[in-house]
Design a protein that fits this description.
alpha/beta; Rossmann fold; six-stranded parallel beta sheet
Length: 447
């Protein structure tokens, strides 16, 4: 069969995404095809389709771009790996394209009305760079995984360019009928609304079970929080209307020229700012906060067994529950493999139950011992769907028995090494990047 040209597009231009696609690309080359790893932005990779006469585009967390047209026809393989609350209905593919998901579309927040194109789970893989030799076990527990920053806990103004610190704001506040509800537009508004949303998310979400349902959280948040934003919008509209009645020269005398410019710059888009802020908070609370909340519970639980914990990853030094254990960021597969191989217990968790992500496979490839929560259901993408608990990894039932299981295996060196060895053997037998390349070519009928 004639060699095909593949264009591999990362989700973002970071080392992890690039390494993943290069590993897949090397195996595709081994099957006789050509591969280009492009940059993630549409204006960077779309022109290459025509210039290089690409046959197949594999794009991570992307579908066909709507705003770019190409003369040369290429098949698209969209590979969604992350949870997206706001991608419902946004998957744009042709009938001969393929949708890969790290699990099921529902788990990732994708609602597909029609799916004439092929849809199936597709996972990451391992190669020889993931291997490592054991030297000396340097820590009891390790976790190699970054986290986004938490939302600020200190009081902050709802919107960055407002007049909450000005004398003018205080004067108008006293004049307003809605002033008795000053929390809707006072200094503590941000802080209070975030606290309410976090508390509700913690109430709805069941941590360390792999059961994240972003729509369940979204529904609960909307029911509780929408009235607050409606009142806030009314109060903001009244305030802005009253401000516009005051001559600019008077406002300038009170707040100063710089504050006046910020004030008018904000007010021109007030309703949109409220809506955008609400949707941003909704997405963050549904997707990101469960990750932070669950990681906190995980680390705090094992710290009661041993505080000999090593944590690596972007921004892990910026969270109060992990900063004391922070050891830096690892940038190469070799350095990651060394940590996996020489930690007594490698901690694993995944909010939406997709245990077949790269970190867990890399732990196994390095011969490391993986401790990971059980998922409530044996779904595509879960560890249970591809590996045998007790043979390739050890599971636990959420917070109920995490500490007991962690202590049992921390004290059982022989069993840990046995499980790590079996996992390493099996992951290279079934989950190498060569296996993934072969699967992709088979789905494209290019074998």
């Amino acid at each position: 069969m004639k060699a095909k040209k593949f264009l591999l597009v990362p989700s973002v231009d970071n080392p992890y995404d690039i390494r993943m696609l290069r590993s897949l690309g090397e195996e595709l080359k081994g099957f006789g095809h050509e591969c280009i790893v492009a940059r993630s932005s549409e204006h960077a990779y779309v022109p290459l389709i025509d210039e290089a006469k690409i046959d197949v585009v594999l794009a991570v967390n992307k579908s066909r771009p709507k705003d770019y047209k190409t003369r040369h026809h290429a098949r698209y393989v969209s590979w969604y790996q992350d949870v997206f609350l706001d991608t419902s209905g946004e998957v744009n593919l042709h009938d001969d394209d393929i949708l890969y998901t790290l699990g099921t579309p529902k788990q990732l927040g994708l609602r597909l009305e029609t799916k004439k194109y092929m849809t199936k789970p597709f996972y990451t893989g391992v190669n020889d760079t993931n291997r490592a030799s054991k030297s000396s076990e340097v820590c009891d527990f390790s976790l190699c995984a970054g986290l986004p920053l938490d939302l600020p806990s200190q009081p902050s103004r709802f919107g960055q360019s407002r007049i909450s610190h000005s004398v003018l704001f205080v004067l108008f506040q006293k004049l307003m009928l809605a002033a008795k509800k000053r929390n809707f537009f006072g200094l503590n508004y941000n802080q209070e609304i975030i606290k309410r949303m976090k508390a509700l998310t913690e109430q709805v979400y069941r941590p360390l079970e792999g059961s994240l349902d972003i729509y369940e959280i979204e529904k609960a948040l909307r029911a509780e929080i929408v009235p607050f934003f409606d009142n806030a919008r009314i109060a903001d509209d009244i305030l802005w209307f009253m401000i516009r009645l005051v001559p600019k020269r008077c406002l300038k005398a009170v707040v100063g020229e710089e504050s006046l410019e910020k004030l008018y710059g904000y007010g021109s888009g007030s309703p949109n700012n409220f809506d955008a802020y609400f949707l941003g908070l909704l997405n963050w609370m549904s997707q990101t906060y469960p990750r932070i909340y669950e990681r906190r519970l995980l680390i705090e639980a094992v710290a009661k067994v041993s505080d000999n914990i090593h944590i690596y990853g972007n921004c892990m030094d910026r969270h109060d529950f992990s900063s004391r254990y922070y050891k830096g960021t690892l940038h190469s597969e070799e350095s990651l493999a060394n940590v996996y191989a020489n930690s007594r217990v490698n901690l694993g968790n995944n909010t939406h139950g997709l245990g077949l992500h790269s970190r867990n496979l890399a732990v196994m490839a390095a011969g490391g011992f993986l401790l990971h929560h059980r998922s409530r259901e044996k779904v595509p993408g879960s560890l249970e769907s591809a590996f045998e608990e007790g043979v390739h990894y050890i599971g636990y039932n959420g917070l109920d028995n995490l500490k007991d299981v962690a202590k049992t295996y921390l004290d059982d060196s022989k069993r840990r090494h046995q499980i790590g060895t079996e996992a390493q053997k099996y992951v290279f037998q079934k989950h190498s990047w060569k296996h993934r390349a072969s699967e992709l070519l088979g789905d494209l009928c290019l074998n």
